[in-house]
Amino acid sequence: MSQIESSSELIPPSLPRAPFTAPSRNRETILVVEDEAFVREAMCKTLVFQGYRVLKAGLAAEARIMFRRCRQTVSLLLTDVVLPDKNGSVLAQELREICPDLKAVLVSGYPNLGMRQSGAQEGVFYLPKPFSAESLLQTVRQALAQKIDEIAI
Fold first, then answer.
1. Rounded Cα gap, residues 96 and 55, in angstroms
2. Separation of CA 22 from chain center
3. Which pTM value belongs to this model?
4. What is the pLDDT of residues 87-145, one digit of tens each?
């Protein structure tokens, strides 16, 4: 059995697959924080395939350490709202206090919670679970395209 995974194995069966597109030349770095390993790996592989650089963490504490080490290169925080050690919205707010230019996307399987958390912070996007690879990429592109002066904490 081969150690190489096919692209069809990267997206959970419950997530609709995006139509094939050639990888782009995105060079931004995205910090992905998701406690569910399978979801985290699927998101990271989708983003890497599109040319993004990815840092991944399973907990908010891990993410804070990574961010402090690499904050000059991180353009976007992509975090689950419900994490075992901290609310993802609170994590986004803390990291944006360190770096006000940081853009954020909150991901949640709880629509009311996710929308309420993202609405509490201007310039923070919301992505409901389950999502397709295309929805993930579209939301990431929208967040990264936002002008820095539009973001306020």
1. 17
2. 21
3. 0.78
4. 999 999 999 999 998 999 999 988 766 455 554 466 689 999 999 999 999 999 999 99
Q: Is residue 124 part of a domain?
A: yes
In a domain, 66, yes or no: yes
* Tokens standing for residue 141: 């592109």
**Residue 7 domain-assigned?**
no
Whether 11 is in a domain gets the answer no
Give per-residue pLDDT as tens, 11-68: 444 444 444 454 556 789 999 999 999 999 999 999 999 999 999 999 999 999 999 9
Residue 108 sits in a domain whose CATH number is 3.40.50.2300
Domain count, the chain: 1
Element holding 77 (H helix, E strand) = strand 74-80
130 within 8 A of 107, measured Cβ to Cβ: no
Domain extent at residue 58: 23-145
- Does residue 121 contact residue 89 with C-beta atoms inside 8 Å? yes
| H or E, element range at 135 | helix 133-145
